[in-house]
Amino acid sequence: MTILVTGATGNLGRLVIASLLERGTDPQSIVAGARDVTKAEGLGVRVARLDYTDPSSITAALDGVDSVLLISGSEVGQRVAQHEAVIDAAKQAGVTKFVYTSAPKATTSDLVLAPEHKATEELIQASGLPSVILRNNWYTENYAADLARAAETGVLAAGVGDGRVASASRRDFADAAAVVLLEDGHIGEVYELGGDVAWNYADLAAAIAEISGRDVTYQPLTADEQRAGLLAAGLDEGTAGFVVALDAGIGSGALADTDGTLARLIGRPTTPLVDGLRSIA
Predict the structure, then answer these.
(1) Is the separation of the CB atoms in 191 and 173 below 8 Å?
(2) Which residues form the NAD(P)-binding domain (predicted)?
């Protein structure tokens, strides 16, 4: 079996490859797909140039590949076309397991990021590829900037209200992807993956306080207050609106659900919030 990991030089891709290797996978049976192959040096596996905007590079990267992990792209607004290029090439190559990192409840969520994931899931289903959908909740590492800012100011300000987030560390999600890629079965499954504990922003403030050694207070913001603050900080109207909408989605519970599926897949508890934050402090 040969596995292609797209986005292999990103934070998640690197951890997936490390997890595959730790599980005894032959390095020669792993292909790291990267737009800039020089960034893949040191991964310890085969490397192939893979540029979403160059279909020929995707076709070449898929040569001899049985399984694909499509790590969702980072370019919001362009991801559906990018993902479709990989899906089409994988179908043409006869891939027997196609794994995609999606978003929580992608097909029904009001989260501002969900539509591109919903569209991608629909393309995968229409393709007929034997697939597994990993609907990853938030990475705890997403809060690096909040951690640094709150540790400096003593204030964690956000527009999420009492919304909860079932985050886990990237390593937890990477291990789940590796398990699904290596184990028989899983085809046809849609896994909602989240941390064992859904925490709120008061909990996040307390965790930052524990790490930083200073008092940290959570300051809830209205949408108007948050937008004004973001604009004052130099964000453009579109970006500020995106952030406000994202927090509103969190406030409405888009990231709150957790049922233990991630822990069951990886065979251990997920990384606690404070431990995940401490690793990036």
Answers:
(1) no
(2) 7-181
